[in-house]
Amino acid sequence: MIVVFGSLGVDLVTNVSHIPHPGETVLCEGYFMVPGGKGANQAVSAARAGSKTAIIGSRGNDGFADLALSVMREAGVDVAPVLPVDKPTCVALITVDEKAENAIVVASGANQATRAEQLETFDLAKGDIVLLQREIRDSENFAAIKHAKSRGARVVFNVAPAGPLPEDVLRLVDDLVVNEHEALVVAKAAGIEATDPVEAARVISERFGCAGIVTLGAEGVVGWSKGARHTAPALKVTPVDTTAAGDSFTGAYAAALDQGLGFDAALARGAASGSLACTRPGAQSSIPTKAEIDDALRQS
Q1: pLDDT per residue over 133-158, tens digit each?
Q2: Three-state secondary structure string covering 155-187
C-alpha cells in the first residue's frame, strides 16, 4: 500500500486577469473552496490511480476539517490516521491568472503539528511505499523517512516546496521527485553546481543512489535511474489550471510503482495524470482516475 505522510487543508481559489504585483489590488468575480494540501492531493491521486492509500496528518477542530477530508474519503483514502490538533486546519490562498499560472500562500496551521511518531503506528513492510512532501516540518519528514527505511519501505520524496536536504536523508530516498526550480535548489544545497535541472537530477541520482525525477511541464518528465536517462512526454492539452499537476504526477507515479510497474511505465502514467490535471480547475477536483489515465495513454 501507499502511506502518505504529509499535508492537507482547504484551497481558497480566485481567478484573476493577472497575478497581483506587490501593492496592487486585483478584483475578480468570486472564489471557490476545495480540499487541498500537497499530501492530500497526492493521496487522492494515488487512490484514484488504483492503489490502496492511507494518509497520516493533522487537522483542526473547525469548519474546514470536514471539507479538507471529503474528497479523500470519496476517493477511498483511509483518513483515520489524520489526528485533530489544537491548531486551525491549513488554508491555501491560490490566485490563478488567465494563462493558468498560479501564486499560492499556504497558512500551515495544523500541518505543523504532524509528527513522525504517527507513522510508527503503521505496520510498514517491504513493498509498502511512504510518500512525502515538504509542507510539514522538515525534522518530522526526515524522522519519518528514517523510520520507513528501517522497516524496508520504499521512500518517494517530492521536495515541494523546494528546500535543502541533509545528505544522510538523501541517501535514504529511493525516488526523488522535483520540478525544474526544485531540482536546482536541492542540487545547490548538496554542493552540486548545475544550471540545467535535468543535469542536476542526473548528478543527484548518481551521487546519492536514488532515482532522480524532474518534471518539466509541457516538456514532460525526465528520470535518471542507475545511470540511465528515461523520458515520458506530457499529453498535448490546453491548460486551464496547473495547481495540482505536480501532485497528480507524483501520486500516479507512486501508484504505478505500488502496482509493480517499471520505471518507464510509472513515469508515463505520472506524466499523463499531471497533464490531465491541467485541463480542470482546482486541486483534487482536477485529478484523474485510473481509467482516464488508461484512455489518455491509449490515445496518445
Answers
A1: 999 999 999 999 999 999 999 999 99
A2: EEEECCCCCCCCHHHHCCCCEEEEEHHHHHHHH
Which residues, including other chains, have CB under 8 Å from residue 164's CB and lie 6 or more apart? 185, 186, 189, 190
- Written in H, E and C, the secondary structure of 197-227 is HHHHHHHHHHHHCCEEEEECHHHCEEEEECC
Residue 84 phi/psi, 5° resolution? -75, 140
Catalytic residue among 11, 78, 247, 258: 247
> What does the pLDDT read at residue 28?
95
Distances (CA, A) of 232 to 82, 141, 266: 34, 29, 9
Residue 140 CB partners (closer than 8 Å, separation 6+): 114, 115, 116
Q: How many C-beta neighbours within 10 Å does residue 212 have?
A: 28
247 classed as catalytic: yes
Q: Could you read off the pLDDT of 40-68 as tens digits, one per residue?
A: 999 999 999 999 999 999 999 999 999 99
| Residue 291 CB partners (closer than 8 Å, separation 6+) | none
- How far CA 273 is from CA of 94, 143, 184, 278, in Å, comes to 21, 30, 24, 9
